[in-house]
Amino acid sequence: MSAEAADPAAVPRRRSRPRIDLRRLGRVALLGPVSRDRLPDAIGHVADAHRAHHPDADLGILHRAYVLAESSHRGQMRKSGEPYITHPLAVTLILAELGAETTTLTASLLHDTVEDTEVTLDQVREQFGEEVCYLVDGVTKLEKVDYGAAAEPETFRKMLVATGNDVRVMSIKLADRLHNMRTLTVMRPEKQARIAKVTRDVLIPLAERLGVQALKTELEDLVFAILNPEGYEDTRALIAAVTGVSDPLAPIAGSVRATLRDAGINAEVLIRPRHFVSVHRVRRKRGELRPTDFGRLLVLVAEDADCYAVLGELHTCFTPVISEFKDFIAAPKFNLYQSLHTAVVGPEGAVAEVLIRTHRMHKVAEAGVVALGNPYAHDGPPAHDGTVQPAEPSDERADPTRPGWLSRLLDWQESATDPDTFWTTLRADLAQDREITVFRTDGRTLGLPAGASCVDAAYAQHGERAHACIGARVNGRLATLSTQLGDGDTVQLLLAQDTASGPSPQWLDHARTPAARIAITGWLSAHPDDDPGPEAPGSDGRTGPAGDGPPSTAPARTRSGGRAANVVVDGPHSPTRLAGCCTPVPPDEVIGFVVRGGAVTVHRQECSAVARMRETGRAPVAARWRDEDGWGDTAACRVTLVAESFGRPRLLADLTEAIATADAAIVSATVEPPSEQRVRHTYTLQLPDAAGLPALMRAMREVAGVYDVSRAQHPAATG
């Protein structure tokens, strides 16, 4: 773990404590518990670390947990030859160093007892209370189970489920993996590589997202040594070459201290060494390392305002490197991280990177959610045995420390029944390194990964109802579902009344969240015969208005046997639908083409898709309107119209009024940004009678400023 300083008033620096020999602790553990009036030496180190963060903590429960763990694991040995009790002790010590509260440490001591010994959950509950039992049970469920090739995906699916109910479960699991990685050399090389890859792909990103940088950085170095031994040795040699020589950051640190002291700012200035992977990344980025690249300056102050005061002094008294400035205090990272980042040029021309944060920010930066304590603590009286009891034990817990990304993972993991899909999607989601917050019209918020689109927002807000989404308003303006959202945007999702339509494959091009991708893929798999058709200009690939549209008739009128609405096609019986790219209505000349699933899509003869389908060798299918007079029965239809106009006030209101007067319903509308005072409107409309289309187009042309109204001709897919 990092040896950085924390709040000196609350957390003594770890370097002030002697190095702990876990093998010696194992020998002490074999001697069993000592007298009741003091803790055994083996647990004493944990107690010292715990009291450093929590001076008033009651260590009695830790003593009892250690006694139970030591007696139940007695006689068990690790593959390294150490007594097994050294493992839960080491895991608990890691968490104690991070500042975990007493309940977490108690569960950590007992985390393997139910899985590997005769101790039962009922015994844990009886002796230590419901909360400790809940955590031990959660960690037990994460233990390796034989799932064959799907072992790791299933294990980490369980991890997410357990973590979603209590983030402390994940904290214990991360510390457990860290100690196992520290002692991994006793295993075969191929097993070391497999465990290291899983740690790299899932556990390190999870540690990053939970903000536990102290665990994340050490895990990165351990994985680096196993998976890239040559790179690790090169980096180790570089660090060894500068170890013991004069640190080029020392004079800059002295200058910074003097500057802040003269300004009356009480601050602690430390040199923070980079860990192995960090040095390796800087070397790959810059090609050649500068002498100051092996560390950074860390400035710790008391209050948020002091951070900006320090920044002002540094940028006034030193030459700043503006491109290196980042403000993670005003805009914290998704994992609770807050700090100011900058770089300044020192007296000798050396560039030093500087981190500025409060002691509290530093504690959270190192320990993440572990530093936030017990989110379920209540003000009620303690139990008769002094154990911690939850206010209202429940399987569904609302964890105030749980970040939005974790809530999303929990939402979609239940839908990803296939282990490979789960694993792939999990890794892709963890690769996202930034989160945005968008606002709904009701004032509530949605947490989404950076780069998310309106498609993602639709599924985050409406779940499977988002299949019927036809568009959105972003910051009050109409927008397509492919529109990428920014931090702080306000989004209103528009849902069609016709819920029979669904998404098109193009939606997957714009979906960034697992929930959206899994829902879309599931719908497409369940409707293999549906042809989403082409995409409207500026649309998002939606099989609905402003896109290519579902069949142009209402679902009740869609039939098999070669008919769709009032269209008849030649050939064998098959599902038939009207193309959304050209939205044919009587008396248009029409022609059909067989698409995937055997369905027939009917286009207008002049549709650009027809020429492309002929070029690809698609055989046309004769199609005609049902009645010989060309108009057939007076059936409802859906049509897309494009209105070209000059920009003026109230134009949109006048156009929509003309449409409403013609008894047409607006299913979706898109207004493109003005270009040279000209505006293009695209409307998808539902008409009660196809015969009313010419009159509707005339009424729209008569609106002042409108110089043309035409049927849409969209680029079409060939099915």
Give the percentage of residues in beta strands: 15-25%
Largest sheet: 6 strands, mixed
Tertiary shape = elongated
Q: Averaging pLDDT over every residue, what do you get?
A: 76
| Beginning-to-end CA distance, first to last residue | 56 Å
- Gyration radius from CA atoms, angstroms: 32 Å
Question: Could you characterize what this model shows?
Answer:
The chain has 719 residues and is α+β, with helices and mostly antiparallel strands. Helix content is 39%, strand content 16%. The chain is built from 24 helices and 21 strands. Strands 1, 2, 3, 4, 5 and 6 form a 6-stranded mixed beta sheet that branches. A 6-stranded mixed beta sheet has the order 12-13-17-15-16-14, with helices on one face. It has a 5-stranded mixed beta sheet with strand order 8-7-11-9-10. A hairpin with a 6-residue loop joins β19 and β20 (678-687). The model is unreliable at 1-39, 144-151, 378-402, 531-565, 628-634 and 715-719 (pLDDT under 50).
Topology of helices and strands:
Layout: H1 22-30, H2 41-53, H3 60-73, H4 86-98, H5 102-109, H6 113-116, H7 121-128, H8 130-140, H9 151-165, H10 167-182, H11 189-209, H12 213-227, H13 229-242, H14 249-262, E1 268-273, H15 276-286, E2 295-301, H16 304-317, E3 319-320, E4 326-327, E5 340-345, E6 351-358, H17 359-367, H18 404-413, H19 419-430, E7 435-440, E8 445-449, H20 454-462, E9 469-474, E10 477-479, E11 490-495, H21 514-526, E12 563-564, E13 567-569, E14 576-578, E15 590-594, E16 600-604, H22 608-615, E17 620-625, E18 637-646, H23 651-661, E19 665-671, E20 678-687, H24 693-701, E21 706-711
Parallel strand pairs: 2-6, 7-11, 14-16
Antiparallel strand pairs: 1-2, 3-5, 4-5, 5-6, 7-8, 9-10, 9-11, 12-13, 13-17, 15-16, 15-17, 18-20, 18-21, 19-20
